[in-house]
Each structure stands twice: as structure tokens, then as C-alpha cells.
Amino acid sequence: VDDVRDRSRDISILFPVEEEILKALNSGGLNLFDRFVSYSLLGQLYTTKRCLTLPPEMAYYKHELVMREVYYYRMLLKLTKEVVDRGLISLYATAIKSRYRAIVHLGGLYDHFGRFQEAQYLWLQAGCLNESDSLWRYNIGFSLASTHAYYEDRAEPFVLARAKALLKRCLDNPELYGSAAQMYEIIKDW
Questions:
Q1: How far, in Å, are 31, 68, 145, 175 from residue 110 at the CA level?
Q2: Radius of gyration of the chain from Cα atoms?
Q3: Secondary structure of residue 38 in the 3-state scheme
Q4: Residue 125 falls in which region: left (phi positive, over 0), alpha (psi -120 to 50) or beta
Q5: Cβ neighbours of residue 24 closer than 8 Å, sequence gap 6 or more
């Protein structure tokens, strides 16, 4: 998946990998850890497929590729809950990292669906899991800046102030700098 994302391998390599994982999942013989890894890989696989094949401005509402991505990340969230419920301490760190990644990706998809409040709620959950990472902060800031006009006139200045504060904290992150700086410049004087 990483090689395809980096474009050092062709996307076609993912198809047999997906088939093999689905075959193993459908067999019903995988333990919790193997199912956990399988859904994590499928979520990453579909995120990669979406990013490489669909234009970012496309409406995702009914696209099968995106619906599968949502499904696999939701299954991963279900399994991370099972890890905690069963007290499998040896998997906690992996479960929390995977839960964070799944929540951030789901938030992005929900935001793209127009489910802004749900997306922002997911990103706040992600912030509780990994407060030091900037990705959740960036996503909320960008979403608030993009949707500020949907709020009541009296709330809009507070929404923009929150968006600016969140985006400003992302300006020192090289991975997010470009788009964070671009949105911050648009809204900084509003």
C-alpha cells in the first residue's frame, strides 16, 4: 500500500492483495488480531485507491469505492472497541493508533459527504486519542473555515476565530503547511 501511495508500484498490485484479505476474512477462521490487521489494511488500501483514482472535488455520496472505505474503517473501529472490551492489553497501543487513523479518515469522508457536524465530532475524538498530532486539528480548522457561512451571523465570528486558531497551530507542520497556510491566509483578516 505504501509503495502504491508513493507511486513506486502500480495500483493494480492492490487487487490480488484485496482478494486475498477478503478471502481470509470470509473464511471466518481469523482471530481478532488477524481481523484487526485485515480491516486496517483494507481501510488503507481503499484510502489509497480513492486518493489515486478519484478527483478530490468529486462528490463521494454514492461511490462504491468510498462506501467500502467507510465500511472497512467502521469495522476497524468496532474491532478496536472489542480489543478494549476484552482487555487485550498487548494490543492497546496498536488499537489506539489504528482507531486514531480510522477516525481521522472517516471524519474526512463524512466532511466530504456534507456531514460536517459528525466529521468534526470524529476529529474531536481523534484529538482525545492523540492530542499532539496536528492532522485532527487541521481537519477541524479547515472544515470550520469552509463552512463558516452555514452558521448563524452571531456565531460566525466565533467559528472563524476557532478555525484560525486551529489552522495557525498547523503552520509549523511541514506535511500540512501548504493547505493550512492557504486556508489561513484566506480567513485571517475576516
A1: 30, 13, 16, 22
A2: 18
A3: helix
A4: alpha
A5: 30, 34, 38
How far, CA to CA in Å, does 60 sit from each of 54, 110, 182? Answer: 9, 9, 24
How many angstroms separate the Cα of 62 from the Cα of each of 68, 70, 72, 170?
A: 10, 11, 16, 32
**Helix, strand, coil tally for the chain in percent (to 5):** 75, 0, 25
Strand segments, DSSP code E, in 31-179 are none
Which amino acid, one-letter code, is at 63?
Answer: H
For residue 167, pLDDT over 80 is answered with yes
At 88-103, the pLDDT tens digits run 888 888 899 999 999 9
Please answer whether residues 163 and 151 qualify as being in contact, where contact means their C-beta atoms are separated by less than 8 angstroms. Answer: no
Please give the model's pTM, rounded to 2 decimal places: 0.85
Q: Which of 38, 46, 37, 35 is nearest to 4 (CA)?
A: 46
Amino acid sitting at position 60? Y
Residue with cell 463558516: 148
Residue corresponding to grid cell 476484552: 86
How far is 143 from 159, CA to CA, in rounded Å?
Answer: 10
Total length of the chain: 190
